[in-house]
Design goal:
The structure holds two protein chains of two kinds. Chain A is mainly alpha-helical. Chain A is 71% helix and 3% strand. Chain B is of the alpha+beta class. Helix content of chain B is 34%, strand content 14%. Chain B has a five-stranded mixed β-sheet with strand order 2-1-5-3-4. In chain B, strands 6-7 form a two-stranded antiparallel ribbon. The termini of chain B are far apart. Classes of the chains: A mainly alpha, B alpha+beta.
Chain lengths: 133, 248
């Protein structure tokens, strides 16, 4: 077994604060982590929306007016882009994290991935039907 | 095709240098030459002081890991022609302290491995008379992928979490724990879980996934760690909900 080297002879390389810009995969990872902030933003935004509905028609109209302001539209567009990134990256990681066995056989990763998108589509369709129907 | 390529190699002599520096060498660009062949050519013909680790030259011993153009690679399996016209940057494995030139200090990894108890643990050993522990092909297949690890530490060099927090147990060690947990002959899962459920165990991992991309043996340590998290979470829920007597 290797003998521990005398510590003062070892050179420890410092890690740059910008390590995550040096490789595309690191960058995507940090953006994926960052996307959680925008998920939190939408949760807060939705909660405020529900509260406005609860407070009556004036509050609801005020909320819609504010939502149409240019800066809020820009924030929400950026947030939406990050939510899409969040969804795509985490969906694609699921088959790696979960081993699903059906009748003694491992379900192929593509099927797990496809299942998630089907689930997303079904839930979205139900929500769409509830809101618009 | 040019007949030579430049190798930009990290040099560090601990007794003389305060910090590492690059040294450039021209080496013949031959179709069948790997980065390791080029380094051996340099050591034999140009500069005998150049220091690096290697052994088998066939991707099985796991000694010759280096960062080639920033990516952790087995230098014996990395061909010069893929980097033509060069230069090819050859650096010691990232995230490990440098001992000399391309040699890194692997003490940390050597201390982490046995903490995973990477051997078959039995509550009660069968006697020799009772015969061997038999396994079906399916039972072998359950852990075979994780048994392919050659301890080359490329995954540690690829992992930014390990770079930022060297306390993190790291990808290969956790994949090895999973290799024994999934072995039908083994009963050591609770013992390994005790180590891995700590903060510096599986929960240190943020699923960057770079370990799996770096692995030359398709072990998928990132997958192993996420599966371990699931197992650890289930154990925590069980510990919270069930009385002590009927757990496990």
């Amino acid at each position: 077994m290797t003998q521990p080297a005398s510590d003062d002879l070892l050179y420890r390389r410092p890690i740059s604060l910008w390590w995550w810009t040096k490789k595309r995969t690191y960058f995507v990872f940090v953006m994926r982590e960052l996307s959680s902030i925008f998920i939190a933003w939408f949760v807060v935004y939705l909660a405020l929306f529900v509260r406005a509905i609860g407070q009556g028609e004036t509050a609801y109209d005020d909320f819609l007016d504010r939502a149409a302001s240019p800066w809020l539209v820009v924030i929400n567009l950026v947030a939406f882009a990050f939510v899409v990134l969040h969804l795509v990256t985490w969906f694609s990681l699921t088959p790696q994290a979960m081993v699903v066995n059906l009748r003694g056989r491992r379900v192929p990763p593509a099927a797990i991935l496809g299942g998630q998108y089907v689930g997303l589509f079904v839930v979205s369709a139900v929500v769409f039907w509830l809101v618009m129907g | 095709m040019s007949d030579s390529i430049m190798l930009r190699v990290t040099r560090y002599r601990p007794d003389k240098d305060r910090e590492p520096a690059y040294q450039d060498y021209d080496v013949p660009l031959r179709e069948e030459w790997t980065v390791l062949d080029a380094l051996n050519h340099l050591k034999d013909e140009v500069d005998t002081t150049l220091t690096f680790r290697w052994s088998c030259r066939m991707g099985i011993c796991g000694s010759c890991g280096m960062n080639v153009n920033g990516d952790p690679r087995l230098s014996c399996a990395t061909f010069l022609t893929d980097y033509a016209p060069g230069p090819v940057r050859v650096e010691p494995l990232a995230n490990f302290p440098i001992m000399r030139d391309l040699v890194v200090d692997i003490t940390d990894f050597m201390e982490k491995l046995p903490r995973m108890k990477p051997w078959i643990i039995r509550d009660e050993e069968l006697s020799v008379d009772e015969g061997e522990y038999l396994q079906t092909p399916e039972e072998l297949e359950a852990y075979r992928q994780f048994s392919m690890c050659i301890n080359c530490m490329l995954c540690y060099a690829a992992c930014p979490v390990y770079g930022l927090d060297p306390q993190f147990v790291g990808p290969a060690a956790i994949a090895l724990a999973e290799r024994y947990d999934l072995d039908s002959r083994d009963q050591g899962e609770p013992q390994r879980l005790d180590v891995l459920i700590e903060h510096e165990g599986v929960w240190g991992c943020t699923f960057v996934g770079e370990c799996t991309r770096a692995c030359p043996k398709d072990v998928d340590p990132a997958g192993a760690i996420q599966r371990y998290k699931l197992k650890a979470a289930q154990e925590s829920v069980k510990a919270f909900l069930l009385p002590r007597g009927i757990r496990r």
